[in-house]
Amino acid sequence: MNILSVASELFPLIKTGGLADVAGALPGALQAEGVAMRSLIPGYRPVMAALKKTEQVVAFDDLFGAPAKLLAAKVGALNLFVLDAPHFYARDGGPYAGADGQDFTDNALRFAALAKVGALIGQGLVPAFVPHVVHAHDWQAGLTAAYLHYNDAPRPGSVITVHNLAFQGQFGADVFGQLGLPPQAFSIEGVEYYGGVGFLKAGLQLSDRITTVSPTYAQEIQTPHAGMGLDGLLRARAGALSGILNGIDCDIWNPQTDKMIANYSAKILGPRLANKKALQERFGLDRDDKKFLVGIVSRLSWQKGLDLLLGCLATFEACDAQLVMLVSGDSALEAAFQEEARTQAGRIGAHFGYEEKLAHLIQAGADAILLPSRFEPCGLTQLCALRYGAAPIVARVGGLADTIVDANEMAVQAGCATGLQFAPVTSEALSGALRRGANLFQQKKIWKKIQSNGMKTDVSWTHPAKHYAEIYRQVAPPQREVARPAA
Q1: Starch synthase catalytic domain: which residues (predicted)?
Q2: Concatenated DSSP letters for 33-86?
Q3: Based on the domain organization, do 12 and 55 belong to the same domain?
Q4: Is 266 among the domain residues?
Q5: Which of 91, 138, 211, 448 is the 20 to 30 A CA-CA neighbour of 203?
Q6: Each residue's pLDDT tens digit, 82-119
């Protein structure tokens, strides 16, 4: 079965968040399910620089205002289609914004072009690869389903995955006339959304199936509290909506072979202490392996809930615990945590920015990893923490609720706990979870069992890949003869 994945980012070529990890990991994971996936991505400068050998598949004389090319390429095990459209993608900055942090003003057309080409491939543009299903990711690929729907050519099945409903791709009504869609598409049954054009809304409305990245998040986004204006549509399409947990690459995240840390395993945890000492030294903390060391690897944003931590930092002193942070984002929060690290040197350490090696060391050396998110579609950090024996302390939301077994009284007695959950998402509840974690840490036999349980949890892509393959089989047309549409 052939599947076309349409995504705006793809690890290891271009990444701003978990979308890239998922889009990069799925093709390999699906091979065991008899699924051949090729990925269509934009030809950003870093992507083009990473391509060693390419083959031109199609030339577009005019793709929303300028010529473009569709290239075929391979990077490692990834089979790619790359949309080489320099007028849209050959720019400084990131995938969505310039170096000044401001969104590109033509993002609507940049990602309409990606979706348009994805739909054309889905309808037979490349005879050598005719997909049974087109799988679009997030708002940037949301119009793919619209271009498929408003076209008379035979079409494949369509799936859209919501990685974060907070990002919806909403644009003014003036954009519609530039998209090349028929007039009837601008309706509540099509791409119209509160008087404008909604890219994600279009995908949710017109795709055969909708998935999101955890079962709990799939339920949450059907409520006004978490639906962000789309809950009514999602409730109406509840029969087409599934929550499938993400996985992680267990070859990259493997404490037994990770070259960035001192290696250890669930059976031989002793060497893990070397990572804790290295982490304490890196952040200038008191080097004492008896202190409860909490780690954070996160963006600083309202979603991630780290502002709540400022209200309960006294808990670390009360519990004689330590905190290390690898964070970046909101400038006011950065300044606040920088000041706390200065005034509480030896107890709190903070690094602003991102370092892959340091992220691995925090997972390998911290006793617990903290994720106090107000909402979290899935989360990958807690999956890495389970793998590395750092007990996750998480808010009871979304994928965090689905992946962590709380160390409550019964779970501890049953020996099945893997971390701690707290609710509601407040400073008071967070403080209580930190105190509970510090107390359990002192009970070495219980804590070791929590660590061991986490490290034995299957956080790979094996089960998620089976779920995706089943959905593809459900929506793929039994037989299709695809005529090649005009480019």
Answers
A1: 2-235
A2: GT-EEEEEEE--HHHHHH-SSEEEEEEES-SSSS-EEEEEEEETTEEEEEEE-H
A3: yes
A4: no
A5: 91
A6: 999 999 999 999 999 998 889 999 999 999 999 999 99
**Pick from 372, 390, 376, 373: nearest CA to 432:** 372
Q: Is 69 annotated as a binding residue?
A: no
pLDDT band at 363; cut points 50, 70, 90: very high
Whether residue 37 is found in the same domain as residue 160? yes
CATH of the domain at 104: 3.40.50.2000
Residues 320 and 356 in one domain: yes
Joined together, the tokens standing for residue 93 give 């900055």
Same domain, 411 and 328: yes
55 alpha carbon, distance to own chain's centre: 30
Q: Considering only CA atoms, which of 456, 460, 372 is closest in space to residue 422? A: 372
Query: In terms of residue numbers, what domain contains 318?
Result: 272-457
- 214: tokens are 């955890």
**Residue 394 belongs to a domain:** yes
Residue 254 structure tokens: 């493997």
- State the pairing for strand pair 196-198/192-193: antiparallel
Do residue 332 and residue 209 come from a single domain?
no
């991505």: which residue's tokens?
A: 41
Q: Give the distance, in angstroms, between the CA of residue 40 and the centroid of all CA atoms in the same chain.
A: 18
End-to-end CA gap in the chain: 24
- Looking at the structure, do residues 284 and 207 belong to the same domain, yes or no? no
Confidence of residue 138 (pLDDT cuts 50, 70, 90): very high
Number of domains in the chain: 2
Q: Let me know: does 217 contact 173? Beta carbons within 8 Å.
A: no
Nearest to 7, CA basis, from 102, 193, 142, 174: 142
Single-letter amino acid, residue 373:
S
**DSSP structural state of residue 192:** E
Cβ neighbors of 71 (< 8 A, separation 6 or more) are: 43, 51, 54, 55, 56, 57, 80, 81, 82, 83, 84
pLDDT tens for 326-347 read: 999 999 999 999 999 999 999 9
Which residues make Cβ contacts (< 8 Å) with residue 32, sequence separation at least 6? 462, 465
The Cα 185–Cα 23 span in angstroms is 28
pLDDT single digits (tens) 384-403: 999 999 999 999 999 999 99
Q: Does 234 share its domain with 373? A: no
